Amino acid sequence: MDKYEPVIGMEIHAELATVSKMFCGCKNDPFGAKRPNIYTCPVCLGLPGALPVPNKKAIDWTIMLGLALNCKIAQKSKFDRKHYFYPDLPKGYQISQYDEPLCFDGWIETTQGKVRITRVHLEEDTGKLKHAKVAGKNKTLIDFNRSGVPLVEIVTEPDIASSVHAKEFLKKIHNIIKALGISTASMETGSMRLEANISLREIKQESSVNKAISKIENNPKLPDYKIEVKNLNSFNFVKKAIDYEQVRQSELLEKGKVPMQETRGWDEKANKTVAQRSKETSEDYRYFPDPDIPPLEIDLAQIQKIRLAMPKTPDIYKQELLKIGVREDQAELLSKNTKMAVFTINAIKNEPKLKDMLVNKIIKEKLTGTASEALKLVEKIKSDKKSTVDSEDTLVPIVDKIIKQNKKAVADYLAGNENVVGFLVGQVMSKTKGKAKPSTVIGLIKKLVK
Ligand SMILES: [Zn+2]
């Protein structure tokens, strides 16, 4: 297996949490809907003559996501029809974006270098099929509540080098989407869905000079086949699927075969990928510009407005935490939960001297809250600190008194019964109403009995 290295690209879909659907006024809440097919209209049912009108908020949020992923934003963009036939697609085509996506040429930083973002585009989600028994017969039912929900797709270059790297990258994307507040990004409800393109290439024994050159070129040679694994609804499944494919494909390659270009699914129970269908190429989809939707023109003022209104991303929070002296590993951890990051920054602003205590407490108890709640936390720590009987000067007379009052226990301890220390600490704690530090008390007892 060491003969080959994986070449991995990802496709990430996220449903945008807009109030209404992508091209009509229907409510966008497929997961919250009480019954099937209640949020529908002629547009999202694909009835003849119905005209789609793009959702401006969804376009703005896609641009915002593109900015957060360091993408260039297209000033001219358009929607295209992508044709395929499946019962969950009422029109027989999906409105998507083909050659003019809203965002392109981005990147995000990972511990193993930059992962380039090819594009971020906007499309509509499909309906949902449900297999059920109706009057004793197996039937396939359809729910159009999800049909036409705005869906962004992020596509990466094949810059991901392992299953562990894939997981790190995906968590990072997930945190960015959550921080922007544009999607619930939930794998359980399916508002975030993952696909991996996996192939293997032989590791060439290169001289260090050649290695440096190929690193600059970034993609020395891509394999001439690609396996797409769909239906990955957790980060762990992505990791498992990549590990599984790595073994399966290397075995084929070892036999001198080229793995068949196909789409595979993840079988959760069998713990393996299974063939679904041969992979479509873009020609199969018969893309063409949607004649019902005029091309989009996005001016620089609109992009600037979105940039200014953009919530901070985890990377920005991390920089701010580092700037106020928070330790690197703690800053990394806090920045992944923007509510905790904001709470920490607010708390430290009130009392920089308590920085370490505040950070530890916030991380340990996963605290979040408003600015005034951050101030309250600072006040509480301050008054706790004041009331802690921690100095030896205060404790020595108390410990001394306890020792004198418990001659028998002390004698037992001196005779070698270490357990008695616990009893004596308990006595001191009850005298100080629990405000003494146990480690200080133990030290003092051991010192004073001798
Ligand atoms: Zn509708």
Strand order of the largest sheet: 2-6-7-10-1-11-12-13-14
Multimeric state = single chain
Order of helices and strands: EHEEEEEEEEEHEHEHEEEEHHHHHHHHHH
N- to C-terminal distance: 65 Å
| Number of helices, where a helix is a run of at least 4 consecutive DSSP H or I residues | 14
Largest sheet: 9 strands, mixed
Query: Structural class, from secondary structure content?
Result: alpha+beta
Mean pLDDT: 91
Can you count the beta strands?
Answer: 16
Structure, briefly:
The chain has 450 residues and is of the alpha+beta class. It contains 14 helices and 16 strands.
Structure commentary:
The strands form four sheets. Strands 2-6-7-10-1-11-12-13-14 form a nine-stranded mixed beta sheet. A three-stranded antiparallel beta sheet has the order 5-4-15, with no helix packed on it. It has helices at 56-68, 163-180, 208-217, 235-254, 300-309, 314-323, 328-335, 338-350, 355-365, 371-387, 392-405, 407-414, 420-431, 438-448, and strands at 4-15, 72-73, 76-77, 80-83, 93-96, 103-110, 113-124, 128-134, 137-143, 150-156, 192-202, 227-232, 262-267, 272-278, 288-289, 296-297. The protein has 14 helices and 16 strands. 39% of the residues lie in helices and 22% in strands. The protein is an alpha+beta fold and 450 residues long. Zinc ion is lined by residues 21, 24, 26, 40-41, 43-44, 148. The site of zinc ion has 8 residues, from loops.
Task: List the main descriptive attributes of the protein structure presented here.
binds zinc ion; alpha+beta; 450 residues; 9-stranded mixed β-sheet; 14 helices
